């Protein structure tokens, strides 16, 4: 069954400022989550936080870009991307 992947409204502006290749990687991550769900152990530096939130690296190097998402509702299969940007500014 397909998952619905959304993003915070405030995230749209931040995503548009990301480099093009990082935007494309984020799109690929969102498509992967739609098909396979929120637990993406096959993505670089994937980790789960204790409160149902997850993160992985989109691009390594300087700067490192990360994405953070959370499962909003398991029954209706809803995932929300809450952050995409540099590792230094990530809200861990």
What does this structure look like?
The chain is an alpha+beta fold and 92 residues long. The protein has one domain: 2-Layer Sandwich (YaeB-like fold), CATH 3.30.2310. 26% of the residues lie in helices and 34% in strands. It has two helices and five strands, in the order βααββββ. The longest helix is centred in the N-terminal third of the chain and has 17 residues, at 20-36. The chain is globular and about 35 Å long. The mean pLDDT is 95.
Tell me the major beta sheet. 5 strands, mixed
Oligomer: single chain
> How many strands in all?
5
Would you identify the CATH H-level superfamily? RelE-like
Question: How many distinct helices?
Answer: 2
CATH class descriptor name: Alpha Beta
Tell me which CATH architecture applies here.
2-Layer Sandwich
Could you tell me the mean pLDDT?
95
Order of helices and strands: EHHEEEE
Radius of gyration: 12 Å
* Beta strand %: 25-35%
Gross geometry: globular
Low-confidence stretches: none
Q: Into how many domains do the coordinates divide?
A: 1
Fraction in helix: 25-40%
N-end to C-end Cα span: 30 Å
Strand order of the largest sheet: 1-5-4-3-2
* Named CATH topology: YaeB-like fold
Name the structural class.
Answer: alpha+beta
